[in-house]
Amino acid sequence: MAKKTSSTYRCAECGYEVAKWVGRCPECQAWGTIEERGDSRPQVARVAAGAPSAPARPIAQVDVESARAEPTGVSELDRVLGGGLVPGVVVLLAGEPGVGKSTLLLEVAHRWAASGGAPSLYVTGEESAGQVRLRAERTGNVDDAMFLAAESDLSALLGHVDDVKPGLLIVDSVQTMSSPQVEGSPGGVTQVRAVTAALVALAKERGLPVVLVGHVTKEGSVAGPRVLEHLVDVVLHFEGDRHSTLRMVRGVKNRFGPADEIGCFELRDDGIAGVPDPSGLFVNRHAEAVPGTAVTVTVEGKRPLLAEVQALVGKSYLNQPRRAVSGLDSSRVSMVLAVLEKRGGVQLGDKDVYVATVGGMKVTEPAVDLAAALAVSSAFTDQALSPKLVAIGEVGLAGEVRRVTGVGRRLGEAARMGFTHALVPPDPGPLPDGIKTLEVADLASAVHAVGYVPG
Description:
Residues 66-216 form the RecA family profile domain. ATP binds at residues 95-102. Keywords: ATP-binding, DNA damage, DNA repair, DNA-binding, Hydrolase, Metal-binding, Nucleotide-binding, Stress response, Zinc, Zinc-finger. This protein is an alpha/beta fold. The protein has ten helices and 21 strands. Helix 7 links the parallel strand 15 and strand 16 (351-357). A nine-stranded mixed beta sheet has the order 6-5-7-8-4-9-10-11-12, sandwiched between helices. A four-stranded mixed beta sheet has the order 13-14-16-15. The chain is globular.
């Protein structure tokens, strides 16, 4: 009797295995990615010991100079990368179409070429070389040591690398490249995985920094197989509102530096420029105090940033009052509204509530809870808060104001920007000079305390 072979089905994006075929992956929720893998039983084999490529040494004797980061010349990008590009690093820069990825990388290629070292090579698969040249001339990013090629074939790309011998390789974008040895259309799961693996091997073999441009899906995640983010060393998200000039590079993964830093840029007609002091971009300066506004200080990586939360409360004419949130976590705002109504005495059951941040900033940390609650309370009572007041703290379900990290660093930034008073959680730790603090234990006392802060 013939031996029955068993098959397994695996998701091409996340690797999740199921016993039978399904249309949608239960793990990553991707459609049409389940593939049959044949016999699921692993083949156990003994592996003989081989000669090591290099002998193991005490860690103190390992040379660290070969792993030093080299600055790109763009200070805000270097901040996110942890100082610059390490030899052999592979960086994936993902963002929506038209957000400015190519403009930023042209600036990086130009700065690298102008530094006097090895040339930079910019390979584009989405535009012609003439189109990229026109953008480079408009933004002033033209240098004799900056090479440009329009290719979509991986073998041709490797040929350009052999000819130019660059010190930096930029590929725009990885979804447009294809390998003739692999089946599938460009941008498909198989092609993207194969092209990325080949470029990673090239980077590690030659110590060549490689920057890959990636597309994003409608949900904002990196397009392509999930393994793409695991293959590369650094994953950066390039964010920004299409109707605003502000752009932010946010670190998501970084094997050589901090993974939670952000860099701020301003997109101009003549290119893109870093914004080393972006706190003022997220705060409106009003001639008079306006009800429904509160200022907090959020921390992105090691950088404290001032953020203004605005709220509008109005009578609802719907059976279910509307709740609209922009720039904040909607579920967390809903929780704060419930606590504000139950513990703070602000009746919002028949009110429409709108809460948003200024300048397109996205704030997800809990330290914004207190400012959001005070902004809604101010809008409800139509009483403006002091324009010199900042509020920092997490709000719990019992109405308590909890401590957050880095209160002293946050208040130092607020004092530098001219704020004189702050509401903080109990026992905040060492505080800087130049700003008066008032500790509030719960939300009700915070709502009551704002009336005693001078305007």
